[in-house]
Fold this protein.
Amino acid sequence: MATRTDEPAGRPMEPGPGTGRGLGANRTGRDRPVGGFELWSWLFMRVSGLLLLFLAVGHVLIMHVIDEGVERVDFAFVQLRWGSPFWRTWDWLLLTFALIHGVNGLRVIVLDYVRRPGARFVLNWFFYLTGTVLFFLGTVIVFTFDPSAWPATS
Amino acid sequence: MAVTREPGDRTDAAPDETVQLLMRIRRYNPELRADPWWDEFTVDVEPTDRILDALHEVKWHHDGTLALRRSCAHGICGSDAMLINGVNRLACKVLVKDVMPKVTVEPIRGLTPLKDLIVDMEPFFAGYRSVLPFLINDEGEPDRERKQSPEERERYDDTTKCILCAACTTSCPIFWGDEEYVGPAAIVNAHRFIFDSRDRADRERLKVLSEKTGVFRCRTTFNCTEACPRGIKVTRAIQDVKRAILFDRY
Ligand code: FES
C-alpha cells in the first residue's frame, strides 16, 4: 500500500492528450494508449489455455490411453511418431505453450502472494531461467532427434 | 455467556416476540492485546431486527467498548459491511430471523483491523481515487445540461448503484493477497464513467486499469458479485472494462 496511498485525495485532474474529443469521436482511436503487457499477457493465457486443452489432452490420449497406453511406448514408437513433422510440430507447440503459459501463471501468482520486491525478483527469475532452459532442451531434441544416431537401440 | 436456547426452540418466531440471539464477535484492541479474540453475547432482539440492531444492543447494554461503523442504518451509506456468518454483508440488511439462533460477526477481510469491526479503509479508497471517479469533460462549461439518451444512460446504470461499502473488494481473493490491486469497487466506479457518454477521460482510466494493479488481475471468481449488497453485477462490469481495453471500444 506504499505508492498509491501517498497520493492526495481528490487530486485535480489535468485532462491528458486525447480527451478533448467530441461526442463519439475517436471512440476507436488509432493510437493505442491503453492495453500494454498485462492485456497481452492476459489474452495469451486465454488463447494458449484453449490450445493447450487440445494439445495436452491429445497428448495424454495418444501416450497413455489409446491402445495399450503407456505400455506400448518405446523407442520404436517414438521413432515412428516423430518420423512425421506433424507430431514434431504438435509436441513442440505443446512444449512452447505449456512453458510460457506455466511461467506466466507463476509470475501472476508471485504478483498475488509475494510481497517483498527482492523475493519477487528472485522467484520470477528462477522461473524465467528454468523455463528458458527447459524450452531450449526440448526444442533441441524436437528438431535434432535422429533415430539413426542411436543404432544400438533402433 | 452461554447459549440459552434449548433444542426444539422456535427459530421462526412471530415478529413481536423477543428471541435470544447468541452473537460471536471478533474483537481486537491493540491497546489491550496483540491478537484478536472472540467475545460471546446473548442479546434479546426481535426476529425482524437487523444484525445492526443486535450489535447496538451489545454496544448499548452489554459492552460499550465494542467498536463498529454505521451511519444510515438503511443500506445506503455503506458503512457497516462486515463478515456475517462468513460472508460479506451489510449489518443493517441482514435480519435476525435469517441467522437464528446464533451469528458470528467479523471485520471485513484484506484490510488492516484497527479496532473490533473497524478496519483501515485507506487502501480501498486509494484504489477508488486512482481511477478518477468523477466526471471529466474539458469541453467547457455547458450553458444547459449535457444530454444523454436513455440507451446511453442504460450502459452504466448498474454501476451507479455502488455505495462504496467495500463488501466486494474485501471478498476478492486477489485483493486479500495484494492490497495494491485496485479491486472490484474501483473498477465498478471506473466503469460508471468510462461508459458515460458525457465523460472524456476514459483513456486515462483505462490506462490505470491496464497496469499491473488493474483489471487483468481479476480471476473471475465472482465473490464480488455474490457479496454486493446492491446487487451490482460486479464481475460483468469488470469484464466490460477488460473488453473495452482489448477492443479499444467503449
Ligand atoms: S449503516 Fe449505512 S449501509 Fe448499513
Notes: The domain at 19-119 of chain B is CATH 3.10.20.30 (Ubiquitin-like (UB roll)). Chain B touches chain A at residues 122-123, 125-127, 129-130, 132, 134, 136, 138-139, 174, 177-180, 197, 200-201, 203-204, 206-207, 210-214, 216-217, 242, 245-246, 248-250 (CB under 8 Å). Chain B is about 30% helix and 15% strand. The beta strands of chain B are 19-27, 37-45, 81-84, 87-90, 102-106, 113-115, 118-119.
